[in-house]
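User: My instructor asked us to take a sequence, write out its structure as tokens, and then describe one feature of it. I'm not sure where to start. Here is the sequence I was given:
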Amino acid sequence: MLDSDFFIDMKEVKELIQTSDILLIRFATVDKRLLMDSRTSEAVGPKMLAVSRASSVEARFRELKTLRPQFPLPDHIMSFHWPKSVSSIRAMGVMDMIADRFRRAGFESEAEHCYEVLSYLEKRERSQLVSAITGEGYSTLWQKT
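Assistant: Let's start with the prediction itself. The structure tokens for your sequence are:
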């Protein structure tokens, strides 16, 4: 459907998932980002969130401080563009890798929440596709003559 033959280095994706404290996955088809925050404390587990586009890097850091005030600001946020559909995150095992990391840290409920966030993004993507097909919220570039 939306996917093309873009090459994705799954070894590099896996490395980012396993080593990044904060990871942001950007999509072309939805206006939300997938934010993985793997930082934990005795009282707080890792978190998977669907977040809006940020206007700047500074805005993303401010948002992160608001979302996770119990943690200091990270030194950096790793980010990459996912050139395929949101559902391919599930099909290619990316969400399984993230959920496994949360499970290994001892946070089963947060691991299951990852799939809920992904389902939310998949629904948004389907809604965007239907809107594009029906023209709802879109305008044509060329008028029929």
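For the description part of your assignment, you could build on this observation: Strands lie at 22-27, 32-37, 47-52, 78-82. Try explaining in your own words what that tells you about the chain.
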